[in-house]
Amino acid sequence: MAPGTEPNPINDDPALEGGEWLFRRAGEVFGPVDSRTLAAMLYRGELEPTTPVSSGDGHWTPVGELPPFVVHAKKAQAALRVEREVTGARLLRQRRGRRKALAVAAAALLLVAGAIGGAFLMARRSAGTNPLLEDFGAGIRIASVARVGVSSRAAPDDEIEVPLDGGPGEGTPGAGPGGGGGARGALRREPGLTGRGGPAGRAASGDVSGGELVAAQFDERKIQSVVAREQRTLVPCFRAEAARSPEFRGDVPIEFAIGNDGRVAALWVDDPRFKQGALRDCLLQALHGWRFDPFPGQRPTVSLAFRIGQ
């Protein structure tokens, strides 16, 4: 072997001579490719050890269990793991360097601008530590601030009646905008009501027959507070997905609905690859541990997105 060269684990392995293989990924069949190409795809992270392959005889076996590829699958996983750790450490050093440079610039601005510069610095620091935009390291971070609203996906039969002192009636739901204070909600009417709606959060005024118009609200600010506190519990799910699919990079938007009991009632992952499977199951299990304040009326939904990779 010439000085300065290293053995190639693929070219130097006689077990990879010949052979043609089909492989199955995302429900589709690809190939045929020869054994060396298949091993190279393992080292590049394009295939997992669990990827089913076939020699064309109709039998499918995980590539990491086939004798010619067992050692290569293990070596490839180890190399990719080291590469991710090295990349994560390098990105962390870069972020720290940028933060340090920003701190030096902010300090200089404070000395020059006086009181105005001090106020500006505090505003920048406040924005930089906003928990809704947190960066969790290892290539996992929030891609968009959580938004609270009422989605068309929220079924109207999740609303509950808000009775007055006169006792509950068998209601027919009606929807309307919520009132001030950052809250949104739904208006509910009992049978026979003819009055006009007043401000959200109180009984309506006007000509009322057989009952009153009642505003039912949820508190958007309290929901945002719970999301900011609990969103870290979703990070392990995305880290596990990044380990399962090292080639994946991009945003994963999710949306969940909050039931009247303050628990997460439904989850949607708006990416065709993750509508079902391990990532969705993990997210749903984590979200079941979140607790919001119970509330009457139409259920809100919360949408946000996590980013895997840079």
Q: What are the defining features of this structure?
A:
4-stranded antiparallel sheet; TolA/TonB C-terminal domain; 310 residues; single chain; flat
What this model shows, in words?
The strands form three sheets. The chain has a four-stranded antiparallel sheet. Strands 5-11-9-10 form a four-stranded antiparallel sheet. The two termini are 38 Å apart. With 310 residues, it is α+β, with helices and mostly antiparallel strands. Among the domains are: 14-75, no CATH class; 134-151 and 221-308, TolA/TonB C-terminal domain. Strand 1 (20-25) and strand 2 (28-34) form a beta hairpin. It is 32% helix and 21% strand. The protein contains six helices and eleven strands. The protein is flat, with a radius of gyration of 28 Å. Helix 5 (235-244) runs antiparallel to helix 6. Residues 156-207 are annotated as: Disordered. It holds the Pfam family GYF_2.
Total strand count, please?
Answer: 11
Tally of DSSP helical segments: 6
The helix content, as a percent range, equals 25-40%
What portion of the residues fall into strands of 2 or more residues?
15-25%
The H-and-E topology, N to C, reads as EEHEEHHEEEEHHEEHE
Strand order of the largest sheet: 2-1-3-4
Average of pLDDT: 74
Distance between the termini: 38 Å
Unreliable runs, pLDDT <50, ≥5 residues?
Answer: 123-130, 155-216
Query: What structural class do helix, strand and pairing data support?
Result: alpha+beta
